[in-house]
Design a protein that fits this description.
By secondary structure, the protein is α/β, with parallel strands linked by helices. It has a single domain (7-140), classed as Rossmann fold. Helices cover 52% and strands 7% of the residues. It contains ten helices and four strands, in the order βααβαααβαβαααα. The chain has helices at residues 12-15, 18-29, 39-52, 58-71, 94-102, 118-121, 131-141, 143-155, 164-173, 177-183; strands at residues 7-10, 34-36, 107-109, 127-129. The protein has a four-stranded parallel beta sheet with strand order 2-1-3-4, sandwiched between helices. α7 (131-141) packs across α8 (143-155) and α9 runs antiparallel to α10.
């Protein structure tokens, strides 16, 4: 049996850091995952970036959002919350679970695992995992395709294209430790 791309919802916190967002969106564009998000998720990451990086223009962030939506047109989840959205430690995260339920996703990709406990998600067929865990899972199932996707993500950065080592270091700074360790042997392919 071949590789089957999982349907995943990207939580705000994984779209906030630039290199992680770039890589996760590239993985979706390459068909390694079937990414999903909502306007609320976009609004939140844009608001967070604007708050800490005033030098980044709001227009530029909206262009990034529009590009993401254009590159992955089926990623947008819209609609009414389904019945049975579980109660979460942070009620403000329920829209992420609702998006997962509407999209028939299997995973929520987040750094905030404590916001999405297994006990709340299991009954709606979801689980939460970090981007590091997702990328390791993809790497285990389709390593050559993941390496090619990482290379494309690095080359997306046209203004200041980092070397493979610089890109790996940037990913590591953003918390992708296990994934970076797995990539080190293939650095020259990046």
């Amino acid at each position: 049996m071949g590789f089957k791309a999982p349907v995943v919802v990207y939580d705000t916190c994984v779209l906030y850091p630039f290199h992680t967002r770039n890589l996760l969106v590239q993985c979706a564009a390459d068909g390694l995952v079937r990414a999903r998000w909502t306007d609320a998720i976009h609004d939140e990451w844009i608001r967070n970036v604007a708050a800490v990086a005033p030098s980044v223009s709001a227009a530029g962030l909206l262009k990034v959002r529009d590009l993401m939506n254009r590159v992955i047109p089926d990623a947008h989840v819209d609609g009414v919350w389904p019945v049975g959205v579980p109660i979460l430690p942070d009620p403000g995260d329920r829209h992420v679970v609702a998006a997962g339920m509407c999209a028939s996703a299997s995973r929520i990709v987040t750094w905030n695992l404590r916001h999405f406990p297994d006990t709340a998600l299991i009954d709606v067929g979801l689980r939460a995992e970090t981007p590091d865990a997702l990328l390791m899972d993809l790497f285990g199932g389709a390593d050559d395709a993941v390496v090619a996707s990482v290379r494309r993500a690095r080359l997306n950065l046209r203004r200041t294209t980092p070397s493979p080592l610089e890109f790996i270091q940037a990913m590591e700074r953003q918390g992708l430790h296990r994934f970076v360790a797995a990539l080190r042997d293939r650095e020259m392919e990046l």
